[in-house]
Amino acid sequence: MPLQQVTYNDISQPLAIAPGAVENYMSAQSSSFGFRNRLINGNFVVWQRGTSGSMTTSPTYVSADRWGVDQASTAGSTFSQSTTVPTGFLYSGKVQRNSSSTTTNNIVLAQALETLNSYDLAGQSVTVSFWAKAGGSFSASSNTLNYNFFYGQGTDQSLANMRSNSWTNQTNSGGTFTLTTSWVRYSYTVSVPATTTQVGLQFYFTPTGTAGADDSFYITGVQLERSSTASAFEYRDIGRELQMCQRYYETGFTWSGGRYSDGYAILNATFKVTKRTSASMSYSGWNNTINPNGSTTDGATFYTFAGTSTVASGNWQAGAEL
Amino acid sequence: MYKLIYKFGTTELNNIVLKIDNNLFIPFDPANTDYQEYLKWVAEGNTPQPADE
Lengths: 322, 53
Hints:
The complex is a heterodimer of chains A (322) and B (53). Chain A is mainly beta and 322 residues long. Helix content of chain A is 7%, strand content 37%. Chain A has helices at residues 21-28, 159-163, 238-246; strands spanning 52-54, 68-71, 77-82, 92-97, 107-112, 125-134, 144-152, 171-178, 184-191, 198-205, 215-225, 249-255, 264-270, 280-284, 290-295, 299-305, 313-319. The longest helix of chain A has 9 residues, at 238-246. The radius of gyration of chain A is 23 Å and the shape is globular. The mean pLDDT of chain A is 92. Chain B has 53 residues and is α+β, with helices and mostly antiparallel strands. Helices cover 21% and strands 30% of the residues of chain B. Chain B has one helix and three strands, in the order E-E-E-H. In chain B, a hairpin with a 4-residue loop joins strand 2 and strand 3 (24-27). The longest helix of chain B has 11 residues, at 33-43. Chain B is globular and about 30 Å long. The two termini of chain B are 19 Å apart. Classes of the chains: A mainly beta (322), B alpha+beta (53).
């Protein structure tokens, strides 16, 4: 980026820079400037749970980090990684009704933000921008993609409660976009109520008839920023994006360094990133039953039977999602 | 469905509940949304399974 030299000789007068001028300049250069995007994994680069997952009737995190999905009342849909992308992206999220499915309940993609990442948006204009396209057999009437932006007054309420409109004093703004089978960048701007302490958003479509081979929408580059206009998508390095995701979910591998005389070993799962809350734990790949001792925001301890082996090992998953 | 668990090697209940359908061990932390879901389930009149002896 070429630099412009600024000559300023009158040191008796302060140099005034208009509010937002630097941000606007950086945006015009398509350059990142400090965590404008409040959404995590908006470009779908982190998939710790796997690259495809089946939706359930309850909002659940099944594949791409931080994004929950559901199909209300009935299920027959999938949320998966796609390499069908607009220029400048590696992955998109594919939100699909399974081929031949006849379920016609809304299929939803959503993300809820923590209060600590939301509270300063109160009373401000917020713009959400994203790239989206319809699959080849997108069945929504008039190719409609619906959106909602949610406002609540509680603290760190769950995605499931957002989806059921049960956040404290929950309200929302909503609207529609008409998708095509080509990538288009869309945006909308909302005025966040002054009493808001937590926000979230969702996209959904209402399928019709019987699903074809690609009854889906693809989405990527989703950005939520404190601005009345959409700026360039903010690219964060993968290490930072992964760490941001790991505040809510991470996986790890642990082995014992020894065992007691009765054959049991006590093990630690030390988290790479401090969790939002004490973590819910699950375990996989162990030879014997796991007996949990406890978990905190920083780790968990548990027992398992090692027998005469000097090493017991396996995987763990720690979750602290909204 | 949920199940209470004992602290390892004792018959003292742990501050953790097991969600059986996905083998998820949930700490009794009011900020944990899995625990909030468990409390809602109990408030609806459900009872967790007792811990194994």
